[in-house]
Amino acid sequence: MKIKQIIESIQAHDKIIIHRHVRPDPDAYGSQAGLGEILRISFPEKSIYVVGEEDPSLDFLVTMDHISDKVYEGALVIVCDTANTPRISDQRYNKGAALIKIDHHPNHDPYGDIVWVDTEASSTSEMIYEFYQTAKEYGFNMNDQAAKLIYAGIVGDTGRFLFPNTTAKTFSYAEELIQYDFNRTALYNGLYKIKDNIARLRGYVLSHFKLEESGMCSIKLQQDILEKYDVTTQETGQLVQTLSDIEGMKAWVFFIEESDCIRVRLRSKGPIINTIAQQFNGGGHPLASGATVDSWEEADRLIQELDRVCAAYGH
């Protein structure tokens, strides 16, 4: 069983470095830092590190460790919530003695010596709690901070338990996690608060989106718009659900212009969209994916493909 292999590998190494994906979201932070916290309290004699780029909006959850290349010597490296190697934050992940992948995205890039992928899991944070359910039989421990981090990751990737990836298991784990002592109200406030400039850009999105007869919805955020509202490309992740409640909409796409490419965020209420993302340098879940295009002409081709998929979707 993969979990037991991971437990044995953790037990065998004195240094463990945990990575996750670039442009992190709550599940990336929750799974990475939640696992890190479990390992720190379970093995106080081991050196445990969490690394990667910082996201100021998630600093209230945890801050990253900054380590030298030398720390990787003889270390076990675990990568959480990252489908493929180019998306791993801090590309030193391959400098350790062993590598483990823990993820809930489709396993198109099965990197690592141990690969544990569960596409049925709502989130990688849910998988970390499932890992703990087995690991506690081997002496692993959980505390309030670990529970808060894992719960935050589950909440983030299920959209506060509204998305269809939420299962009976998800609710069961959430029920157990809230038995720990952490402030859920403060956690929700931290996860969902937005600055006034982002709220104003949300108003722009609601005023300028395009909805086609097929049920396909799109919005383009060029650099001049981002500059006008003083919003970074990283912060635009807080806008993705803005269009989710529009009547008659089946799937939607955000285009965010960056200095060297156009970032694409795809979401769906039914039509399968990760196959479209794969055509445009991306991938992800059937109903939530990301991609990259190099020009607005290529963006329009993606829109046409999404429009076709939405038109063919029966309901």
Q: How does the major sheet shape up?
A: 6 strands, mixed
Give the number of DSSP strands.
11
Return residue spans where pLDDT drops below 50 for at least 5 consecutive residues.
none
**SSE succession:** HEHEEEEHHHHHEEHEEHEEH
| Strand content bin | 15-25%
Gross morphology: globular
Distance between the termini: 40 Å
Question: Which structural category fits the helices and strands?
Answer: alpha/beta
Share of helix among residues?
Answer: 25-40%
- What oligomerization state is this entry in? single chain
- The count of helical stretches stands at 10
**Whole-angstrom Rg:** 20 Å
Mean pLDDT: 96
Strand order of the largest sheet: 6-7-8-9-11-10
What does this molecule look like?
Helices cover 37% and strands 17% of the residues. The protein is α/β, with parallel strands linked by helices and 315 residues long. The mean pLDDT is 96.
Defining traits:
315 residues; alpha/beta; six-stranded mixed β-sheet; five-stranded parallel β-sheet
